Amino acid sequence: MLYSWRKPAFRDTETGVYNHTYFIEAFNREWQKHLSKQQGLALLYLRTNIDEIPNMSPVIKKLSSKLKSRLLRNNDLIARHEKGYFTIGVFNVDDYGMKATIQRVTDAIEEVRLDAHHNYNQRFDCKITAGHCMPSICKQSDGLFIKVKKASEKLANQPKKQLEVIYWD
Q1: Distance in angstroms (rounded) separating the CA atoms of residues 108 and 62
Q2: Contact predicate 111/63, CB 8 Å
Q3: Could you give the strand order of the β-sheet that contains 163-168, starting from the edge strand earlier in sequence?
Q4: pLDDT class for 121, splitting at 50, 70, 90?
Q5: Is residue 9 predicted with pLDDT exceeding 80?
Q6: What is the DSSP letter of 41?
Q7: SUPFAM superfamilies annotated for this entry (predicted)?
Q8: pTM for the structure as a whole
Q9: Residue 96: in which H helix or E strand, if any?
Q10: Total Cβ atoms within 10 A of residue 101
Q11: Nearest in space to 44 (alpha carbons), one of 137, 169, 140, 152
């Protein structure tokens, strides 16, 4: 089945980025391409923490807009999960490329954090978990999702730590 960016069923209605279901399908297609080409890829989880106020929408919209602007390549994916966290897929990337992407994302988060504080008097924080791997016939894309999700849950319980990077060799 062909999907279109313009079809609203595949976008998060609040932010305009892909929804998690579409992201998983697109990520799996990229996984298969990278398996045959022996290219690395990265998966980033961004776990947001926002003060509960009646309208969090401006901050979430600003974050998604900033994140989209920081992903430099057309084949990079960004999605928002129903539970509020963001996932980013970065393809054909080595360790240095992943770290550069993490830095751009971190800069975007810092801009949104400052904006949320100054314009909305709202506390905003975001923790990043990144996983890098080279697809192989011994690995499935689900395995990377599981590893990154577990690392993200562990990171959530560490108040002072903002970033966790894992490598699936």
Answers
A1: 9
A2: no
A3: 18-19, 77-80, 86-91, 41-50, 124-133, 163-168
A4: confident
A5: no
A6: E
A7: Nucleotide cyclase (SSF55073)
A8: 0.90
A9: helix 95-120
A10: 21
A11: 152
